[in-house]
Every structure is written in C-alpha cells, then in structure tokens.
Amino acid sequence: MMLFKLSRLAARYKRTLLVCLTGTMLSFNVAAQPEIDSITLVAPDTVSELLKNHFELPTTPLPDETDRASFMRRARQEIGELLATEGYFSPLLTMHRAEQVWVVEVNPGSRTKVTQLRLEFKGELALDSARIAKLKTSWLMPPATVFRSAAWEEAKTALLLGVTQEDYAAAKIVLSQAQVDPLQESADLTVVIDSGSANRFGELQVSGLERYPKSLVSRAAPFHAGEPYRRNLLMEFQARLQNMPQFASALVNIEPGLKSEVPVQVTLVEAKPRRMALGAGYSTNNGARSEINYLDHHFLAQAWNLNSSLRLEEKRQTLTAGIDALPDDKGYVMSWGASGETTQIEGLKTASSKLGLTRSRTVAQLESRIGVNWLQESRKPAAGIQQVNQALVPDWQWLRRSVDDPMYPRRGEVSELRIGGGRRQLLSDQDFVRGYVRHQLWQPLGERDVLSLRGEAGFTAARSRLGIPQEFLFRAGGSQSVRGYAYQSLGVQEGAAVVGGRVMSTGSIEYTHWLSRDWGMACFTDAGGAADVVHDLHLAAAYGSGVRWRSPAGPLALDLAWGRESHALRLHFSIAAAF
Fold first, then answer.
1. Rounded to an integer, what distance in angstroms lies between the CA atom of residue 381 and that of residue 387?
2. Parallel, antiparallel, or unpaired for β 38-42 and 568-575?
3. What DSSP letter does each residue of 234-282 carry, written as one string?
4. 3-state SS of 416-452?
5. What is the pTM of this model?
6. Any idea what DSSP says for residue 129?
C-alpha cells in the first residue's frame, strides 16, 4: 500500500522526507507525528507507482468541508483518468478520518479485458486473404488481454505499419473504436483499414545535385520504377546514399496519392569533394603510428573515389593509393590500387610493391571480391639469405557479417573465406594455392555478459615456401591473433628471424562482463601457431584478462596475457572487435 502524509509544517519549513518500506506499505512522512487535517492517500501496489508519479496531492492541509469536497472532485476525475489508462474503468474513492489524518482510499476495481475484436480491411488488400490472416495473427491485443490505452494505440500503429510496409503506402485507419463497458469489465474493439490501390515505385525526383550526375543516385537504388512498393527498400536506399562519401546528408521519401506509381523524392546535400586528414595512434603490434590521408570523391570529374595515405609505424611503413569507380547497374565496383611497404618484424626485413585490380559488390550482409594482384617483394631475414620474390595472384574473397551492432557486437557472427594462387607460367616464382578461413561468434549471456569465440586457419599448397611472398604465407601472434606473444613471432625459424609458413591455425575464447555502459572486464584464452608443414604445427597457448572501453573512437581493449611457451607476461592494446 502507498501512504502520502503532508502536514502544515511543509508550508512553513523545509521538508524532511523519510521513506520506509514495510510489507506492502510505502510511507512518505514530513513530520514525526501527523498533524490534524493532513491528507493520506492509500492505494494498492498495482497502481501506487502510477499515482505517485502522476497525481499531485495538496501542498497544504484541507481544514474545512468545502476544501475537502473540492479536492475529492478533482481526485475522482484525475485518478479516474489515470487508472483508465491501465484498464481500470470503475474505481471507487472514499475519504474518512483515521486518528488525526484524513485518509483517501483508492479501490481501482477489476481490470477491463478485451472481449470482442473486429479487424476489417478495405481496398485491394481485402482480396488478399493470406496477408489478412497474417495481419490478424500479428495483432497485439487479442481477446482476453487487459485493455490499456497505451497498448491500444501501439497495436493500431503496428497493424497500420504492417499494411504500409508492402504495396499499400497510402493505407490509413478509417475507423478506430473501443467500446468499454465498466460494469461488464469488457472492451469491444473495432479497427477498419482502407489500403487503397497497390502502389509501385515511380520515377526518382532528385534535388540537391550540383557536381554529380543523377546516375550516381539512380545506381544506388535497390529497386526500379514499376516494381512493387516496399518500405524496407526505401530505407535501404536512404542508408546507401548516407554512406556514400559524395553526400553529407540524404533524405528519401514518398508522397502516396491516387496514382498507383508513386514518385520517390530524394533530397541531397553534397559533401566537400576533397579533404585531408591527419592521425596518430599506438598499438602493441606495430608501435607508435602517424598517418596522413588525402581523399578526393570527385576524381577526374567522374565522381570516382581516390583514397591515398601514408602511414609510418615503428615496424611498418606504408604508402597506398586506390581508385573506386561508380557501381554499375548490378552494384559491382571496379577498383584499382597501388602500394609500397617496408617492414621489420621479428628479425625479417621486407620491402614490397603491389598493383591490383578488384571487382567487388556488397549486398546486405554479404561482401564478395574477385581480383588480380601483382606483388614483388625483397626479403632479408637476420643471419639469413636475401631473396626477391614475385607473384601474380588471382584472388577471390567472400565475407559475411551478421551482427546486432557493427561497433559493439553482442550477438551475431562474421565469416570469411579467401582463395588465391599463382603459377610460374604467369609471372610467379612458385606454383602455389592459398586458402584462408575465419569465423567469429558473439553470444550474449544475460544482460551484461558476452561470450566471444574466434577461429581461423590457413594453408598454402606448394612444394616449398621459397619463392612465395610473405603476404601469401602465415605467421601468428599479437593482438587479435594469439595474445601473450609478440606480433608475428609464431612462425618458421630462418636464420635469426621468424618468417611465414605454409600452415596456420589460431583460436580464442573470451568472456566479457560490462560493469557499465562504457566499461567492461574480460578474461580469455588463446592458442595458435604457424609452421611450414602440418605435422610441425604447434599451438602456443596463452591466457589472461583485460579492460574494455567503448570510447568515442571505437571499442578499445587493454589486455595482459601470459604465454605458456614464452613464460612471460605481455601487454596488448588494440581495437577490441575483429572485422
């Protein structure tokens, strides 16, 4: 029960609030002893919170009968309206004196339930019995459920949304009626929806273009004029435009009318075509980093994307440039790229140059790429022999992302498959075929805990690793590989250096508990390694714990891991989610 006490002292002095929970009574006291004419409101626990939050008691006592009668009139009206929202349509309020306190008792009565339901559909939708049956099944307030105003409005909104999301963009509710009988504690519901005629996508009406052609927008549309209207395709179209670097903002809308084909209105604000960005950072894999990027989203006045960058790290230095053409009618994008890189990792020095051509497409959760890359590499292991290797490699990649949140996943999975190879007859120093597979899974455990599983494996089929550039071989160790070991320190020993082998396997199990929205703790165990042949593959194990932070720049992880084979603790700092 809920008890509110207000005394004359509340008007004269600062109020002292004492909250005491005893059994089913919740008491708010202003003074140690009740004063004459103070007001007390008593109600069942089922409605106490509602009245506490939305009904205002008098701030001063009511000494005479006229004031108390006026208060009761207001209480009956306001409390009646509040209780009606929760299905109580026949409440009873009484007032009596108990000791030196006026007590107002609230008896909400029984809750009204839905007894009859009539859902009617007019227009072309009335001819689709299968869809009508599905809409009726999804109705949120079936008979025998408690009638609540908020739930009533939510059910109507959900029903109309279910009609308008496919074909009938102009559908509307023409009759909405709830007949409540307080004596019978029953509610008879009637909803009539007029779907009108089925709609199809019409022409694109684009505004806001200055530098770019309309074809840039039309190619991003996941539908064509004349196709049946689908709300999800409209939302997907807007998301694609918003993700395009050429536009600062994009709004996609329709105005359904009497015509069956509805024009699609696209309002755009173009972004600045060129920009430069500077950055700095640090990772335990490659050390301190500085970076400069130059982007041109209107390269050669063709709305192509030019992305070039210079990244300087302690163990790796990279210069890259790439051009992405506009997607064709099927969503495929042609890309050209060139890069140069030098590394010095685990005693191995490399200097490489690369040229590539790729055709890619992203459809919903799936991304596919097929291309060809030519790479020339100079490698020099410490206390070893310097070699120059080259390879012309056709390459195919398939990637599927299905997660609830790309930045902070709690549920979902990521899968990747990649196959490529080279032949001596086609500008390669060695015949080889390289395969790689990766899978990562997130599973929520309760409201704050997440279990993450990750596994990867790679194999390069060849007579020997000699003559194959390091990019097509494997090493392990470091953040997002096997923590507890230095970056790429697990591989094949050659001279005083660690080089890539033809076989690799790693796995990880991680459990994260979020202490708050932004901070969490994790414990994990990793295992993995790389070798030249399968029977030499040894999985080095490690285990540890760390801190997780959802920073403004993205998810960050700070881990301390113990390597079972290295017999040492190693600190790792990295982006927490591997994509």
1. 9
2. unpaired
3. HHHHHHHHHHSTTEEEEEEEE---SSSEEEEEEEEEEPPSEEEEEEEEE
4. EEEEEEECHHHCCCCCEEEEEEEEEEEEEECCCEEEE
5. 0.69
6. H
What are the tens digits of pLDDT across the range 422-474? 999 999 999 999 999 999 999 999 989 999 999 999 999 999 999 999 999 99
CB 266 within 8 A of CB 205: yes
Please provide the DSSP assignment of 361-410 as one string. EEETTEEEEEEEEEEEEEEEETTS--EEEEEEEEEEEEEEEEES-SSS-S
Q: Return the pLDDT at 107.
A: 82
Closest CA to 304 of 288, 317, 323, 286: 323
What burial letters (b/e) apply to 319-340, b meaning 16+ CB within 10 Å?
ebebbbbbbeeeeebbbebebe
Stretches where the chain sits below pLDDT 50 are 1-36, 578-579
Mean pLDDT, the chain, rounded, equals: 87
List the domains of the chain with CATH numbers.
2-107 (3.10.20.310), 113-194 (3.10.20.310), 200-270 (3.10.20.310), 388-575 (2.40.160.50)
For tokens 């992203």, what's the residue?
Answer: 362
Tokens 């990772």 — which residue? 283
